[in-house]
Amino acid sequence: MQFKRRGPKVDAKSTDGDIESPSPSTQPSPSPRSRRPPPSASGGASGGNPVGVLLRKIILLTTDPNANSGTPQNYLLTIIKDVISGTLLGVLFLMILIFLDYRNIVQLGSARAFRRAAFELMTDPDTVKTIEENIEIKFIPVDVYKSMQEEISRNKEKVNDNAGLAQHEEDLAARTKELNELKSEYEQWKEKGNRMLGLEKWCGGCKGGWGNCDGRVKYLMDTYHTPEIKAKVDIMKDGKCMQ
What we know:
Layout: H1 32-35, H2 39-46, H3 50-63, H4 72-102, H5 109-122, H6 125-135, H7 142-160, H8 162-197, E1 207-208, E2 211-212, H9 213-224, H10 228-237
Antiparallel strand pairs: 1-2
Helix pairs in contact: 3-4, 4-5
């Protein structure tokens, strides 16, 4: 079986001067976006690596001719969003792994070492001191905190206990009553003693050869430690300081 090569097919309309046949150079070329591999193929090449996905996005943004209408600010904003989202997802994934390792659901040596290093760092005295100085809070052990709470509760109970306070008030009232009775009795005996010794005639504001009578009594008491009543009686025996 033989094949014969045909010549180029000439359209009948091409012979007219009004209509021109399209040249090969004017044929529409497929856009670069149509030649781009599907997302599944490129995603498989990166293996699900966040760094690979980020690099792929940067390459696509920089090589896409249709993206020239955008501005560098848009590119930078997109890159920043991808970096932040990738960082947050990475931290969340790391926290999930550490939690699963803590619950013995999975066994990861790196997660266990990271948790041990974090615990040693947070329990370091210098770290704790720095944190306390920055946030102005004192960290105390749980046992000390519980003992302080118990002591506060006991003191509150003592304050709210009115039985002891009422007892003290009753004792104070009784002592005050006894003191008033003793004062009254003392005044009565003092008045009787003054009448017996004639001290009701004492004139404290009078003046003797030494000056004021009360001043003389005070002088004798301070200098010679003479009792007050004896000093007054001795002065009155000489007929001085009497009304």
